[in-house]
Amino acid sequence: MKYILIVLFVLSVFSCTSVKKYNEQRLSMIPPEKLREDIDFTYRKLQEMHPNLNWYISKKDLDSKFDSLKTTINKSLTPTQFYFKLQPVITKIREGHLSLRIPSKRFSRKEIKALKNKKGLFGRFEYYVEGDHLYFIENKDSIQNIQPGTELLSINGVPVSGYLKKYRELITSDGYNSTFFPHYLKDVFFNFFVAEKGIMDSAKIETLYKDKRQTLTLKRETKDKKDLEKDKAEKKRSPEKKLKDYVASTSSYNRNFKFLDKDSTIAYMKIKSFSRTFSNKFYKQSFAKIKDAESSYLIIDIRENYGGSLYEINQLYSYLAPEPFVLIKPAQLASTSTPLKTNYFRTASPLEFILKTAGYPGYFIYQTLNIRKGKDGIAYYTMKENKLTKPKLNAFRGKVYVLINGGSFSASSIISSKLKFDRRVTLVGEETGGANDGTVAGFYSYQKLPNSKIDLPIGLLLVQPNITFENTQKGVVPDVEIKESMQDIIDKKDTQLDWVKSDIQKLKDSKIWD
């Protein structure tokens, strides 16, 4: 016990020192020549490791973007200031997964504990972005009586439109679609804001609702006993929470299943994230219920689903496929060596370093066995998802609809693209935020810029659905396009789901007359 306590004490001191050192470095001024070195380092690593760097931009144009950036760096900057210079250039590559990590302040355990006992300032609302406008669309706690549909005009006297334009330059979809930005920006707006401005205890805001302007003050409130008890209860993982993958921070489930009618002919599955957690059990139980109910129609809702596990979408597809299938093409690599450059020890504490050292031989052998050089001279990484998969015994044979929108990204786009190509479903909604022809992600090489110390995760796998490519450089286009307005969301009117229900009713009616 004495030795365990000594180890814990050493780790605690190490953690505190690490946080302090990081925060000091984050505020330091870095000379321009050192920043230019970081720009060269970034571009060199991208060229070395990214498997399809010039998919959406030519090498000549990308060379020019990086060279132009270097000419603008003529004074010392903090890492955060430098981030706002370099990240917009990286977005020109048009790969949604490729992004610098903004150097936000790190907190000590004491600071984290204090924050856990307080409510959010801006995080207690739901938002909607349209152009250069940011709106409140949900206010569950009735804070300051802000009504859904109210526009947030300014924060502490600074126009929100300026922040939106600035932050819009920090994100990109895959390719040239534009549907991704409003969906993603509403979710990450305050991540950027807090990283830039810091965590505030209060903020003066100006709002506009029905032509009436108001100046209000938001305050970070301390949680009462009831709030703390609720937090504690939400952390408990019941069997239902595990199965549906409960997310305590949003008080919602990543997966839900239900029937939409009394006779159970219409099954509905909402998947907010392909997290993989307990996914096997969820799909097994859900499709067993569908089979027992002899349902004729299935609606799969992957709107606002930013993606996740290839394993999970392969599992889901196996319950929809009429015959054996291959979900994705062999994943391409920049070279046979890049899978071994994933920075295996990057976040290891002293104790974790010891454990990882012991496990490294197994990791090395596993990675090496999955790398191969094709006859075309291209390096490939073998995964289960690019091998033949048999349909499940409970595979659904009825009519399938899939709801998509600009928030359907990454794995959501891959499964949508595959399902559409195989003509297995009717896609309804809005063009996906992820590309029709694949993306670069998989696992990452975590690079750290040598002077600014900004993290740069680089996806190492070119992951593409097993389809004939359209080369549109856009997202998956729905079979039936239906756009959703802000007022629809406020009124809780689901026009896309309503269209599907109406179409199903027409099919039912036609069968009666047949």
TrEMBL record:
Ranges annotated as spanning the membrane: none
Coiled coil, from the record: none
What Pfam families does this protein map onto?
Answer: Peptidase_S41
Q: Which residues form the Tail specific protease domain?
A: 236-483
Q: Which SUPFAM superfamilies match?
A: ClpP/crotonase
Matching InterPro entries: ClpP/crotonase-like_dom_sf (IPR029045), Tail-specific_protease (IPR005151)
Q: What is this protein called?
A: S41 family peptidase
User: What organism, scientifically named, is this protein from?
Assistant: Chryseobacterium zhengzhouense
